[in-house]
## 1
Amino acid sequence: MTRYILLTALIALGIVNCKGQASFQEALQKTFIAFDSTQDYQKKVDAGNKFSMISKKWGSEWSTHYYNAYSKGILSYMEKDEAKRDAYLDEADKELDEAISLIGKDNDETYVLRGMLANARMAVKPQARWQKYGKVFDENLDKAKELNPNNPRIYHLKGMSKFFTPKMFGGGKKAAFPYFEKADGLFAKESTEDITKPYWGKTTNAYMFEQSKGDD
């Protein structure tokens, strides 16, 4: 009887744990779709706030902090006020640090996101920050590439950087095109079934791939 009770308790505990895991993944998936499928600033903010709540509710899951950091990075690009843009990035850096702490070390996705946040920090004041944060951007993407050269977000971010760099400094459509093209091929091979394995960037890359075709 004792063994039966113990076995029943263990099975029940396993069911509860599975449900808890599924619920945080479902919450992340739903919020990511809402965030990624709109270009309306307020809707992005609303979804970003949900990411913040999710990261607090499931604080022991690295991916909840990762996506919260990701959302704040994107919102920084969309915000017009410089102080608010930096505030978003301060929060993003903190959340990414928490994600890395929970993982125990950096991986290619954390390096990629760190690179994206550095680029966002540079974009607040490009002329004053490009030397410092441009270097941080490149270093983090290089580290990500060493771990996983098939991560499409590496080439997507490089393409974005090239696209918005003036042609006289080596940027422009033609310079960006090969990066978007490579990212497009890698995105096509990437699964979108597991939200805890980041796959952000595909929609934006497809749009920028088309925009980079043709002459500058």
Note: The chain has two domains: 1-105, 150-216.
## 2
Amino acid sequence: MEIKLKNLRRVYGDLHAVEDVSLNIPSNTVYGIIGRSGAGKSTLVRLISMLEKPDQGEVYYGDKRVDNLSKAELIQERRKIGMIFQNFNLFSSRTAAENIAYPMEICKMDKVAIKKRVEELLELVDLSGRGDAPISTLSGGQKQRIAIARALAIQPDILFCDEATSALDPQTT
């Protein structure tokens, strides 16, 4: 799905984190945003993914404008999106498998389908047999792989990553 940004702006007090950004990200591409620390990369990702609303400008997923959606419409649109954060954002009260299952539970998927998909994803991220592991027992790299599996669980139309592989070694990446 193509993503279009038109004249995005986000200001925090005197800090102009994102200033007049316009770009098109074609469908089925990997698009990287690079820059120095504090340049506004994470803010831009948060704006594109609609975790934050821009102060000005427009965000489109395909031909659909998403920055002006109601809260209920935005929730539905976010169900088509996967997010991988640098700091994992895993639930410490859930096992590895339960963390992966969470987005599918929200979408009210069938329990049998959830179990099957969780097993597929654990295998994909090379953590087969670790589904029952409490999050506290996993290494940083294992936690990051669980976060990646969780983001892929619903087979998202769009996958946003904010330094998603920073906790992984080059071979695993």
Note: The longest strand covers residues 15-25.
